[in-house]
Amino acid sequence: MSSKKILILGGRGRLAASLAECWSRNHEVVSWGRAEANVSNLEKLRTQLAGVEFDVLVNGSGATNVDGCESAREEARTVNALAPLVMAESASKRGARFIHFSTDYVFDGKKEAPYTEPDPANPGGWYGQTKLDGENLVLADSPAHLVVRVSWVFGPAKPSFVDMIIQRALENDHVEAVDDKFSAPTYAPDVADWLEPFLAQPLPGGLYHACNTGSCSWREYGEKALEFAAEAGLALKTTKVGGVPLSQMKQFIAPRPVFSILSTSKLAAATGITPRHWHAALRDYIFEKYASLPSRS
After folding, report:
1. Sequence-ordered alpha helix ranges (H) in the chain
2. Distance between alpha carbon 76 and the CA centroid of its chain, in Å?
3. Confidence category of residue 296, pLDDT binned at 50, 70, 90
């Protein structure tokens, strides 16, 4: 593949930062955080994008505080729906590929089998609604654009649930996580590998699901993380995670889909790459980050 000029917005985020790091090995990558591009200022964003060259534009920005979106509705709509349209239009004017990220929260979680791309979306909260609106606006601008839904992203650029549960187990002999909400973890560096074939235009655009294979509850996810952390040598106070029902999470304002496992068969068919199991990705992440720490026992 020839080297591409790639501009990534939201570049300080957990997913976008990993894309920038991985793709910079073979491509010319420029990464903008909020300081370089405030995506809530649509006119300024449009002007900024008109003044820079790129072959691929990637949107890793977003208003992702699920509960915060319920109260800051206009801001969420601007960042999650209207700003992606500005980016899509800018990419179309250049004949560039646009890659936009969305979420499993566009689904209501009532299906009992993995969601495929043609399944009807029915978000339960404003975050999911604005992300769905962004998807529709981007794909209406051009079928060549790529909309990629991910779920439960973890990776080296920014702490996630994985790091939180490990930290808790380093400090406490009892930790808990929700045990009746199910999805599939997504390892950010793996996403970079799966999507790199799309940086060349011939692969079709459209809607794709991208996550590691397998599924779990938050409790199972946390317990596997602690298992690998102990294997890596961390002096944990427990490797067990207690289960709590989602209904007890009284601090949650917005509804969450209880089942949002995404099928990746379309992605595999397009790229020839079958995502590896989340266990393998999680083990790699934990050993790379934690195995050499001085707190090893």
Report:
1. 14-23, 42-50, 68-71, 73-77, 83-94, 126-141, 161-171, 188-195, 218-231, 265-271, 278-290
2. 17
3. very low
Write phi, then psi, for 273 (nearest 5 degrees). Answer: -110, 120
What was the pLDDT predicted at 1?
64
Rounded mean pLDDT, 159-164: 97
187 is catalytic: no
Instruction: Give the pLDDT mean for 276-288.
Output: 98
CA dihedral for 232, 234, 239, 241, sign (positive or negative): negative
What's phi and psi for 240, nearest 5 deg? -105, 145
Please say if the pLDDT value at position 85 is more than 60. Answer: yes
Q: What is the CATH number of domain 5-158+186-212+261-276?
A: 3.40.50.720
Q: Mean per-residue pLDDT for 274-293? A: 94
Closest CA to 59 of 129, 11, 95, 94: 11
* Mean pLDDT within 229-245: 96
Using alpha carbons, list the distances in angstroms from residue 201 to 68, 97, 197.
36, 7, 9
Residues in Cβ contact with 250 at an 8 Å cutoff, skipping those fewer than 6 apart: none
Q: Which residues does 35 contact at the CB level (< 8 Å), separation at least 6? A: none
Q: Smallest Cα–Cα separation from 143: which of 63, 79, 57, 206? A: 206
DSSP string for 85-114: HHHHHHHHHHT-EEEEEEEGGGS-S--SSP
Give the pLDDT of residue 216.
98
Of the candidates 105, 127, 221, 285, the residue annotated as catalytic is: 127
Residue extents of the structural domains in the chain: 5-158+186-212+261-276
Q: Determine if residue 206 is left, alpha or beta; phi over 0 gives left, psi from -120 to 50 gives alpha, anything else beta.
A: left
pLDDT in tens, 15-31: 999 999 999 999 999 99
Contact 205, 144 (CB under 8 A): yes
Sign of CA dihedral 218, 115, 269, 13: negative
